[in-house]
Amino acid sequence: MKISAAEIEAQLSALEDGDQDDHGRREAFIVHPQAPAGVRGLAPATQVVVGVVLPGESTELTRDNTTGLAMGIGGTGQVEVGDRTMQISLQDVWTKPTMRLERFTNTGTEPFRYLRYSNAALLESISAFYEDRGSEAAAIEAGVIDHGRRAKDLAPAIPLTGDEQLLPYEHLVDPDFVEDKPLHFAWAEVSQHLSGVLGLTTGYTGRPLVVLYNPATGRLNGTTPSFFATITAVGGEFIGGNHRHMSSAINYHFGGSGASVVEGQRYEWAAGDLMLSAPGWAAHQHFISDEGARVLTVQDHPLHTSNASLVWQEDIEHGEILILGSEAGFETNIADYATS
Description:
The structure is a single chain. By secondary structure, the protein is mainly β. It has two domains: 2-139, Jelly Rolls (Sandwich); 194-337, Jelly Rolls. 14% of the residues lie in helices and 35% in strands. The chain has seven helices and 24 strands. The chain has helices at 5-17, 120-125, 134-142, 169-172, 187-190, 195-198, 301-306; strands at residues 2-3, 26-30, 47-53, 62-64, 68-74, 77-81, 84-88, 93-96, 102-105, 112-118, 131-133, 158-159, 165-166, 184-185, 209-211, 228-234, 238-239, 244-245, 249-262, 265-270, 274-278, 284-299, 311-313, 322-323. The strands form six sheets. Strands 1, 15, 16, 17, 19, 20, 21 and 22 form an eight-stranded antiparallel β-sheet that branches. A hairpin with a 5-residue loop joins β12 and β13 (165-166). The chain is globular, with a radius of gyration of 21 Å. The two termini are 42 Å apart.
């Protein structure tokens, strides 16, 4: 499914001409026509929103239990997430951890436009979405207290004969945690580190991309606990391998042009187009034109890794099928491109 740059532009223009919603936002959901009733997702686990903040406007202070990321696609703005304030420029990417206060402000003279991804579609599908708004949200967050000593320290695990253990209740209500900080991947900095992937050519058995990595996700290799975001950077013509995976992939093409073949159907794309380029387990292959391309890909790869459901096949005609994260994965021929 492809949403063209012209369609996105028309929607953003309509948002600019309309009114703010009761969150103080101007946003539109991009919903797949086959999404279940009440689930506003482009893919089963992924909600995608286009939004705009006009000069002088700010959105309402809110927090919810989604995690997500966003890219600035026009103008500049200020984004507050938790205790971090970020100045966002074109093609910057930022993350929103769960239950952090969030607000967007346009401090410039042009509309601040963004493309936002979250796991709200998954939460809506299992009736697990939660939200606090405005002064209520601020009061709740201000009241969070660190109690120091943990009751579960007095209720240790009980070992059984083999690897099995029993855990008392205290472990269920106080699991170990990893702090997830809001991150800002500034395009001005990220773009300076793409020479390695720009040097990859057709014949490379991997993908010419880098992951916007959040260390809090650990072995999940994610940008958020549910998604990775990658930047594909290709300087000229490139043909990727025909492959498939259980994770769904959504591509925003912010430079260049090319085509993708998904389950035998060819889709041409250019800068500004958004595409659900890989529904779960759909065979797909990407062809970059001789002008190259820049692509933001958001995929629910970490979600599947954490659920041991990430079935993956790198080469559909000749390759094996593996469960990534549950066994050793694939190797590429990166050694052929290594420089001394």
